[in-house]
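Input.
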Amino acid sequence: MNFTLRVNVGEHCQYDCGYCRPGLVRAPTGASQRVQPAEYARLALLFAPLGVTKVRFTGGEPLLRPDFREVVAAFHQALPDATLALTTNGQRLDALLDDLPPGLGAVTVHVDSLQADRYRRLMGEGDVSAVLASVQRAKALGLATKLNVVVQRGLNDDELPDFLAWSRRTGLEVRFIELMNTGSASGFTRAHFFAGAEVVARLGATRLGRKHAADPACLFRAADGTVFGLIASDTAPFCEDCARLRLSADGRLRGCLYEPAGAPLGALLRAGWSDAMLSGLVKRAVSEKRSHHPSLALPRGRFSMADLGG
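Output.
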C-alpha cells in the first residue's frame, strides 16, 4: 500500500476561519518545539521503505514558516521520487512561485469565497483577487493546482455555481469540502453544516468516482458538464481506503485525523532514540493504523484542523 504523509509544519495562520482558529484547544507549537529541517531529514528516511509516495505540507499556514524551503528540501532529498505538495491559503504563494523549493510539484489553495468582502469576513484580511491570480500562475508554471472550498450553510453555499464558473474559465479543479466536527468549534459546525449530498443535489451532479481508491475527493460532473471534487468526510467517510499518515508540528505521528495520541517521534528523536528504534516505532504505528472516525465508538480528543493539519 502506498501512503501520503501530511506534515503540519506549524499551526500559526493569518486567518480566522470560524471552523478552525477560534477552536484551537492548545497553544501553537513554539519555534523551539517544532521539528527542524535536519530532524525532518532523519524522520523522512524512516518513511522511505513504507511506501510513502506523496508528502503534503500543511498547517496552519505553511508559508509563515521562514525555513519552509529547507523543510521541503529535507523531504526531497530523503524521498526523491515522492510527489511533494503544499496546501496554503495563498497569501504568500506568489513569492514562493518566484523561487520554488526543489521537488515541490503540487499546490492546493484554500478559498471560501470569490467575493472580496465576504472573503475577508469568512477568512480574514486578504485580497482574494491576488490569491486567485497566484493560483492561476501556479498552474501556468506547471504545478498540479486545485482550489479547496469549505462549504458553509448560509455563509457561502450560494457561491457553488460561481466556483464552478471559475473552474470552467480557468481549467482548475475545485473541491468542495464538508465541515468536520473536530470538537473544537461544534456550535459553528452545527449551525453551518452543509452535507455533500446537498452539494450534489444543488449542482445537479452525477457521480464519476475517485481517480484512485485512496483519494479523499470523489469526482462529480455538474449539470453543465463541469467536473468538481467533493470531500464528504463526515457523511460519507472513506476510512477503509484511507492511506494518509499525519505528522504534527512537534513530530507526533498519527494514522487517523481523529486519533487522540499518536507516536511522539519528534520527542523521542530529541531524547536520543536511534534511527533503528524510531524506525521500529514508525513501522508499528503504520501497521496499527485504524479509523477513529466519529461514527465509531472510540476514544477521541478535541482538536482543531490547525492543530493537526488541514
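The domain at 3-308 is CATH 3.20.20.70 (TIM Barrel).
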